[in-house]
Write a structure and sequence with these properties.
Blueprint lengths: L1 E2 L15 E4 L7 E4 H6 L2 E5 L6 H9 L4 E5 L6 H15 L5 H18 L4 E4 L2 E2 L9 E2 L1 H7 L6 E5 L9 H6 L4 E8 L6 H11 L3 E8 L6 E2 L2 E2 L2 E7 L12 E2 L17 E2 L3
Parallel strand pairs: 1-16, 4-5, 4-9, 5-6, 7-8, 9-10
Antiparallel strand pairs: 2-3, 10-14, 11-14, 12-13, 15-16
Length: 268
Amino acid sequence: MSKVDKKYNFLKPIKNGNLTRIGRDEDGGYIVDSNILKKSNNLLSFGLGSDWSFEIDYLRQNNRGKVHVYDHTVNILVYLGPLLKCFKRFITFRKSFKDLIARYNDFVKYLKFINNKNILFVKKKAVTKITQEKKEIDIKKALEQIGFSNNVIFKIDIEGDEYSLIDEIEKHSKLIDTLIIEFHEIDQNENIFVDGLKKLLDNFDIIHIHGNNHCKDMILGLPTVVEITFNNKKFRPKEIEYKNEFPLQDLDFPNNPYEKDLKFSFQD
């Protein structure tokens, strides 16, 4: 187990007895507070990628919630292309029927996802400030779309652009009950990461942290790609205790299931 340098002790999560996993048991799943989940009105997702188990699981466990997804990289061709390619290889005996069915099922799942009445999927890029209305979305505009409603869970996984959104998150922190961010390349963005996290901690508490084992690099004992869940400080418990060792049994799973999870601990 890797020992995290004491300079990162401000990342120690507050113990929370209501933690639950939403999404699958690998990449795409995140940890949230179950009490906040049940009361949530909206899930905002900046970044979808190829897995939406978190968004689907959110709707399963909160039948009154709505999901708003913004991702400019995902469209029907992402799933139709591989299906057609697999079909061509199938008829020339280079792919099995099982492979073809798997690509077909991926395509059908995508269609079901984007046509779900409780999901709004918009092909726009998350930015700090909108310059192209038809192609971009910022935090203020995304919140405006839901009437600046409170009880929001906000998930951000946008491959390195998350750092630029921190100031805007802070401006609208009163509306956000839970914030989930995957931070990338911490070793290359250490000062931005530290400064940004300390800004967020003005209004949020860390309740969970997990290292993404798709990247095995460490900086002073800390994984260089981490998933962090924050709760708004209005949910802070009266008595505060901290959790030191990660991953958490039965809640955390390796993002890459073929490799061991990253184990690390904070120092007292």
